[in-house]
TrEMBL record:
Domain NADP-dependent oxidoreductase as annotated: residue spans: 30-65
Superkingdom per UniProt: Eukaryota
Gene3D superfamilies, per the entry: NADP-dependent oxidoreductase domain
SUPFAM superfamilies with a match to the protein in the record: NAD(P)-linked oxidoreductase
Organism: Phytophthora lilii
Xref: Pfam families: Aldo_ket_red
UniProt GO molecular function: oxidoreductase activity
Descriptive protein name: Unnamed protein product
Amino acid sequence: MVLTIPTKTLPRGATISTIVLGVFQSDPGAETYNAVLSGLKLGYRHIDTAEYYENEADVGRAVRDSGIHARRS
């Protein structure tokens, strides 16, 4: 099952999802990895993360393991 997530077009023509998966209070490790991987499988393409959250390695691993490649507009 893949969700249809609405997008907005930015001034230069790129699009961005209006629904965001945030990982601010997600514990580093399996919790973050599984949440991001599941979100990507459902159709999420916008993930709010920051170095401060200390879980960016898990986000990156989930993105890599999802097999979804970056798309350039």
